[in-house]
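Memo subject: From amino acid sequence to discrete backbone structure tokens
Action wanted: Derive the backbone structure tokens from the amino acid sequence.
How to read it: Take the token row as a discrete description of the fold.
Attached in line: The record itself begins immediately under this heading.
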Amino acid sequence: MRFDDRVDAGRRLAARLEHLRSAHPVVLGLPRGGVPVAFQVAHALGAPLDVIIVRKLGVPYHRELGFGALGEGGVRVVRDDIMRMSRVDEDDLAEVQRDEQVQLERQAERFRGGRERIPLEGRTVIVVDDGIATGSTASAACKVARAQGADRVVLAVPVASPDAVEALRGEADELVYLSAPALFSAVGEWYRDFSQTEDDEVVALLGRDTTGAAHPAHHIHAATPVSLPVDGRRVTLDGDLTMPPGAPAVVIFAHGSGSSRHSPRNRAVAATLNRAGLGTLLFDLLTDAEAEDRAKVFAVEFLAGRLGEVTDFLRRESVPLCYFGASTGAAAALWAAAEAGEGGISSVVSRGGRPDLAADRLERVTSPTLLLVGGLDQTVLDLNRRAAERLGCENRLVVVDGATHLFEEPGALETVAELACEWFTEHLP
């Protein structure tokens, strides 16, 4: 059994957990990849969603060998036999626990943003991950949940290795899995899209309602699927529109070559913008069949035309519109902004963009433009420096130190999201 992505896996897993609805469970996702799966489970069951943060306690001279686990609320579970075998004494234990406690608190603050942990005392708890290879983290999570007072612990995953299934049967009161393929080597091979889940996506999902009650501190609406007619209504593109109440603008995303509206990086940036109250539209510039044609993937004028049509469609929201373009999508955004003319697009942000592909239009761009480039992405940095000189509008080039083209380094994408949010809000009409 293969899954399209974590959303698909979560929906299928939720169907297998329907019998737990009457138990009024709490759903706990293991960050980061387990949270998108857990969100679908919690939403389907109308249950509250939280994360279960577990830090492994590793032998000092061999950190991969775990002798216990640490959880929130001062919970600690320790394997005395492994401690004795590894000659770990109380001083070693205290040192390792001190280090891991700092990391645990940082993660809790990052994911919850100051919200309290959902109490588990006397509750049925469903611990969810996107898959299990060895089972060590899942085992620790079950122990921590039980130590935090859970009356019943259910471990639920879309896919697991057969060895892990056998090892985990005694860890939870109920083990639910959709597939345990004999030829198992890694969780990711059972997903068509196993893109990395970013911290911002976890934060956004935890801020959304799964029970029917409002989360007044966040005001984030779920994305609404939209169909976008282009090419004289001969072609329809799929999109996801998120509109927080009273959004002062909508940011339209133009993804780069080989990507789509499911881009985890763009979704992470969009989540930050949504928390700031801005609307976002992520959509596919090409149909699935068109995306197979590499010529279309790099046809910037064609993509800019599509973006312009979608922009016209979105003007019905009667709010200012902005562009966020990544890689080749940034060229399409700049081209479309130039065609829109003065007052057409409120502002543009380019992430690791290729503005050189829109060179003929740069001087005609009137929208304030922010160019964000990784400091280690030297070729693209040079292209952006030359483009900044040609732009005929207010513009700024910001170099994110230590970042490569995809901004995968810790904190790099968060910096991009914060800078983009500031630029969009500062340049609203």
The radius of gyration is 24 Å. Residues 213-220 have pLDDT under 50 and may be disordered.
